[in-house]
Amino acid sequence: MSGKSVRERFMRCFVGMERYSRWAAWAMVALYVLQAIAGMAVGAYLLSLPVTVGTVALMVLTALFIGTRLRGLNNIVHECCHSTFSGHREDNVRIGKFCSALLTGCFRQYKDDHLSHHAHLGDYAHDAELAVIEKFRLHDPLTLKTILRHFVTPLFGRHLPAYSGINFSRDDGRFWFGVKIAFLVAIAVFSVFYPLVSIFFVLIPLFYVFPTLNFWTDCLDHAGLVGSDDELTASRNVLAPAPIRLLFFPRNDCFHLVHHLFPQVPARHLDKAHEALCADPDYAAKPMAARPAHLGFANMLSGSLAPLQTVDAGK
Predict the structure, then answer these.
(1) By C-alpha distance, which of 217, 236, 240 is closest to 292?
(2) DSSP-assigned letters across all residues of the chain
(3) pLDDT tens, residue by residue, 19-44
(4) Which pLDDT belongs to residue 16?
(5) Which of 55-59, 148-152, 243-247 has the lowest mean pLDDT?
(6) How many CB atoms lie within 10 A of CB 284?
(7) What is the pTM of this model?
(8) Which pLDDT value is given to residue 310?
């Protein structure tokens, strides 16, 4: 069964899935912003304590947590570019631009690149998202060596030119460009008065942790599958335990295969769409669609590397 046939068989099942109301959409954005601010407050408190192994470990975990909340905002940007976040179409644009400004990006450029990713998945000549990271060779078959390479790459910062930095484009309009500049000025002023808090719990999460999580997520989504002619085998779902999903895959980001098959499905319903698809024996038989993540790691530990090319989280 191909991705095309799956869409034809299930398209009607997923029509009209509810998007957030205007107030609920903005409340969701506020939730992630407040979580990031709360993480900064916790980080400031930890910096006031004596330096011990325990406090350093908690500071690292706090910076990581803030990075995951930024991932949540990024996932909202992603959903807004598909107009599936808010039931009000214009709010998808406003929210997308607002969250992009907070992440120092550009919504219009992100949308253009991402829609090319859906239209030309895995085609480096036309898939603008994957073309930027072609040098990381996500198209290589998964072996222990390539898995270790994907894991180690961010530890040396090699991914940062492609995943980090400030986008000074004015393509989102003067107002949102001003919001972005105001946010950057606020960070600079904050850094003057609270330099350590800024370094450890603003700059590192925004310009290192967040990009690193994005790189690893791209690897989980597509590594070893880039170049597949069928969308059903070109992406993965990552069926990790619920706490892992909530922290590292906010807003159902773990159902990437479902999203590529049905980009019109709001993220809040991707889990329901996956459950419906699993009733189809052909979809359920695809390891990258329905095999739990721990089985992929088990294959790694047992030295059975061949199945890793189709296992959803042995990536």
Answers:
(1) 240
(2) --HHHHHHHHGGGGTTPPPBPHHHHHHHHHHHHHHHHHHHHHHHHHHTSPP-HHHHHHHHHHHHHHHHHHHHHHHHHHHHHTT-SBSSHHHHHHHHHHHHHHTT--HHHHHHHHHHHHHTTT-TTT-HHHHHTGGG-TTSPP-HHHHHHHHHGGGGTTTHHHH-S-----TT-HHHHHHHHHHHHHHHHHHHH-HHHHIIIIIHIIIIIHHHHHHHHHHHHHTTTTT-SSGGGSS-B-B--HHHHHHHSTTTTTBHHHHHH-TTS-GGGHHHHHHHHHTSHHHHT-HHHH-BHHHHHHHHHHT--GGGGT-SS--
(3) 999 999 999 999 999 999 999 999 99
(4) 87
(5) 243-247
(6) 12
(7) 0.91
(8) 39
252 with 271: CB under 8 angstroms?
A: yes
Read off the pLDDT of each residue in 246-272 and give the average, rounded to a whole number. 95
Q: What is the mean pLDDT of residues 60-79?
A: 98
Q: What pLDDT, on a 0 to 100 scale, did the predictor assign at position 150?
A: 96
Cβ atoms of 300 and 314 within 8 Å: the answer is yes
Alpha carbon distance 164, 103 (integer Å): 10
- Measured in degrees and rounded to the nearest 5, phi and psi for residue 289 equal -100, -45
Q: For residue 59, how many other CB atoms are within 10 A of its CB? A: 19
Token pair listed for 45: 């408190």
In the prediction, which pLDDT does 271 show?
A: 95
Nearest to 276 by CA among 7, 2, 10: 10
pLDDT tens column, 145-155: 999 999 999 99
Give the phi and the psi of residue 145 in degrees, each rounded to 5.
Answer: -65, -45
Cβ pair 261, 236 in contact under 8 A:
no
Phi and psi of 88, rounded to 5°?
-95, 115
| Mean pLDDT across the chain | 91
Task: State the burial class of residue 75 (Cβ atoms within 10 Å of its Cβ: 0-12, 13-18, 19+).
Answer: buried
d(CA 272, CA 295): 22
For tokens 């390539």, name the residue: 146
Alpha-carbon gap, residue 105 to 94, rounded angstroms: 14
